[in-house]
Amino acid sequence: MNITLESAQLLKCLSHIQTVVERRNTIPILANVLIRAEKGVVSFVATDMEIEVKETLNAAVGRVGSITAPAHTLYEIVRKLPDGSQVELAAESGKGQAATTQLVLRAGRSHFKLGCLPVEDFPKMPEGDHTHKFSLAADDLADLIDKTRFAISTEETRYYLNGIYLHATQAEGVDVLRAAATDGHRLARVQMALPKGAKGLAGVIIPRKTVNEVRKLLDGASGHLEVALSESKIRFTFNGIVVTSKLIDGTFPDYERVIPTGNDKIVDVEARGMAAAVDRVATISSEKSRGIKLSIKAGQMTLAASAPEAGSASEEIEVRYDGPALDIGFNARYILDILAQVESEGARFSFADAQAPAIVQDAADASALYVLMPMRV
User: Fold this and answer.
1) Which residues in the chain land under pLDDT 70?
2) Comparing C-alpha atoms, which of 272, 283, 322 is closest to residue 300?
3) pLDDT of residue 288
4) What is d(CA 170, CA 148) in angstroms, rounded to the nearest whole number?
5) Distance CA 370, CA 375 (A)
6) Which pLDDT score is estimated for 97?
7) Which residues pair with 47 in a beta bridge?
8) Measured at the alpha carbon of residue 335, what is the angle toward residues 329 and 337, in degrees to the nearest 5?
C-alpha cells in the first residue's frame, strides 16, 4: 500500500475516526484504525465493536492494499505536522524471521514508522437486512439530537434510557418522526414531518455514544443524509462518512404517560433573560441539588435559592401570567438545559400545582416539548 494525502484532509478524517477508539482496550486491534487503499480512494475505519465509523477520501494511490495502525498515535503525528504538508503513507514489510509490517509516514523531513497488527484481526460489523431507509436533512437530524440528547440518562443500570428513542407515530392526525430522551427527572420530545421510507418505524434506541459521534460529524455537513435500520443496527451515510452502530436492546418506557394534560397555569417568559437570572441565582444554591424556587404571581416571577454555608439569593423577572400564586422548585441545571434549546425570544411554562410536572415549550415552536419534574426546595 502506498498513498499520498494533504495533511489537512487527513487530519480532519482522523479527528472524526479516532474519537471512536477507546483509550484503554483489552483487545489490542481495537486501538487501531484500518486503512484500505483502492483505486483513487482510501478509507479509514475505526470501531469499538458497538459503533463503527468509516470515512472515504480521494487520494493519490500508488499501490493498493490494507494496513492497520495505532489510531491515536497516527492522529497526534498528523496533528503536529506543518500546515500544507503532503503526507505519504506506505506499508513496509520488516526483515528477519519475526518481521512485522510497519506503516511508514513521510511528510517533508519527518519520517515515522509505526507498528501494525494484522488486517485479518480487524473486526467487521455486520449490518443485517435493512427494514427501513429514509433521507433526512443534516440540519434536521442535528436539531433532533440537540433538542433531546441533554436529557439522556447516564445511569447504567437503566440502560434502556441511555440513548435517544426514535420512532414513527401520529400527532393530531399527521405522520411524524419523533425523538425522545429521559433520565427520569426530565423528558425531551421533539418531532418533525415523517420522511418517506420511515412509515411504520417501530421504536429504536440509539446509544448515547453514537448520538454524540453523529452529532459531532454533522458539524459543517450540508444537504441530506441517509438513515438505514435493521433489526439491531442503524447506519448513517453522508459526506463520504458511514456510521454503523448497534442499537440498545431494551424497551423504552411509555413516555407519553408522564406528559401531563391538565396544566392550565400558563406563564410566558423571555427565555434568555430567565436563563441569565437562573444562572445568577443558582450560584448560591447547594452544588449537590442545585435547587431553585420559582414564586409566581400576576406579572412576576421571583427566583430564589439558599444554602446554609453560602447564603441566599433572589431575583425578580417580569412574566405574562394572571393566575393564582404558585411556588414550585426545580433543579436549576435542568431549567438551563431546557432554556438553551429555546430558539425564539419566548418560553412558555405550563403548571398544574407545586407537586406536578411542568411542561416547557418554545413559544414559537410547538415541535419540541419538555417535561420537568419538580423538587423540594
Assistant:
1) 94-99, 288-289
2) 322
3) 67
4) 19
5) 16
6) 45
7) 52
8) 155
Show the cell assigned to 311.
447564603
CA angle (255, 256, 259) in 5-degree steps: 100
How far is CA 71 from each of CA 51, 101, 170, rounded to the nearest angstrom?
15, 16, 44
Length of the chain: 377
What would the DSSP string read from start to end of 36-62?
A: EEETTEEEEEEE-SSEEEEEEEE-EEE
In the structure grid, which three cell numbers stand for residue 247, read together?
A: 442499537
Q: Which three cell numbers stand for residue 33?
A: 484504525
Q: Which residues contact 47 (CB under 8 A, 6 or more apart)?
A: 20, 30, 53, 122, 123, 125
Query: Measured on CA atoms in the order 360, 361, 362, 363, is the torsion positive or negative?
Result: negative
**What phi, psi does 262 have (nearest 5°)?**
-110, 20
Nearest to 88 by CA among 66, 106, 68: 106
Question: How confident is the model at residue 95, as a pLDDT?
Answer: 62
Q: Are 292 and 330 in contact (CB under 8 A)?
A: yes
CA atoms within 13 A on the CB side of 376: 0
Gap between the Cα atoms of 149 and 137, Å rounded: 18
* DSSP annotation string for 88-99: EEEEEE--STT-
168 to 182, 189, 193, 200, 202: CA distances (angstroms) = 18, 13, 10, 6, 7
355 half-sphere exposure, CB direction, 13 A CA radius = 0
> CB neighbours (10 Å) of residue 289?
16
Residues 6 or more apart whose CB falls under 8 angstroms from that of 59 comprise 3, 4, 5, 37, 40, 41, 42
State the maximum Cα–Cα separation within the chain, in Å, rounded to a whole number: 86
Residues 40, 8, 56, 46, CA torsion sign: positive
What does residue 158 show for φ and ψ, rounded to 5 degrees? -100, 65
- Secondary structure percentages of the chain, helix, strand, coil, to 5: 20, 45, 35
Q: Are 346 and 269 in contact (CB under 8 A)?
A: yes
Say if residues 223 and 137 touch (Cβ distance below 8 Å): yes
